[in-house]
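New to this. Please check this fold:
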Amino acid sequence: MRIEEFHKLLRRRPFEPFSIYMSDGSAYPVTHPDQIIVTPRAAHVGLNIDAEGVTAQDVVICGLIHVTRLGPLNGVKRRRRPSKPK
């Protein structure tokens, strides 16, 4: 997976939660852009966020070489509203 694919999703406004799917079949949810740090070789994802939505209890490091795809969280993509004519 290319780092640019992560940046594209993380910069989207409004932010749309997504899942990171790995080659071993595991998947990790990203519900907020501050939950993930992407480096050239890995995505560091905070897991088990506390009730205040501030502190991650665990971190998983996803090697970008093992990321098979990025997709909408739970397979549900939000529908975009049509733009208003100017």
Summary: Strands lie at 18-22, 27-30, 36-38, 42-49, 56-63, 67-72. Residues 44 and 61 are 5 Å apart (CA to CA). The radius of gyration is 14 Å.
